């Protein structure tokens, strides 16, 4: 570990580099069992009314063992480029990006610390385009969600190819409802959870013995507890199937099938 300090009467900044930092030593209450080593640069800064950090870290051997998941989260490639700022009213995180294998997450998260409207978690995040289907065990969205919910694990296993583009995720919920919302444990309101994405060139095999559905294209939208699938086009054995529009009102139940 090396460090360089810069200071002035109203602010302090420390820049340094780390190598081989054991993530199990992170002093964060409630953190699940975590293993891995981080290396890279860290900049800490503090003023009279705020403090924060900017990090650019590569993590090797990352294993996060959430008790509720069917297997540990263990991506092979992890890169964290982020800014964190904390003041008396909120905690703000800017991901630039966070990469876990095929997942590259960008955007901002704000956790308020006040009352009423200020005591909320706001997120505006996006994922870089990524491929579906078998990828030598690399982490991607369906594979990650499938560690918690069997319905998404089955969707991942049956997806042979394709890509997801334009993935946007927006969240606006009270802090005390955050965990339950992300776990699909409640009926969320339309303004609380919003997801938009496009599926391109998908290949999906419903059963091992059946011919695959190919050239799948669709617009996917989530508004609260409602899943909407628009302009779903596909072919089977070279023949186009009728276009489908689908709405599922009850995402909290679908996620737990």
Description:
This protein is mostly beta strands and 257 residues long. The model has no long low-confidence stretch (mean pLDDT 91). Helices cover 9% and strands 57% of the residues.
* Radius of gyration, taken over Cα atoms and rounded to an integer in Å: 21 Å
The end-to-end distance, rounded to whole angstroms, is 48 Å
* N to C succession of SSEs: EEEEEEEEEHHEHEEEEEH
For the largest beta-sheet, the strand count, sense and barrel status come to: 15 strands, antiparallel
State the helix count.
4
Give the averaged pLDDT, no decimals.
91
Structural class: mainly beta
Beta-sheet strand percentage?
over 45%
Helix fraction bin: under 10%
Number of strands: 15
Net shape? globular
Low-confidence stretches: none
Overview features:
257 residues, DUF3971 domain-containing protein, globular, mainly beta, 15-stranded antiparallel sheet
Give the structure's gist in a few sentences.
This protein is mostly beta strands and 257 residues long.
Write the SSE topology:
Blueprint: E1 2-8, E2 11-22, E3 34-47, E4 51-64, E5 78-87, E6 90-100, E7 103-112, E8 120-127, E9 130-131, H1 141-146, H2 150-158, E10 159-174, H3 178-182, E11 193-204, E12 213-223, E13 226-236, E14 239-240, E15 244-249, H4 251-254
Antiparallel strand pairs: 1-2, 2-3, 3-4, 4-5, 5-6, 6-7, 7-8, 8-10, 9-10, 10-11, 11-12, 12-13, 13-14, 13-15
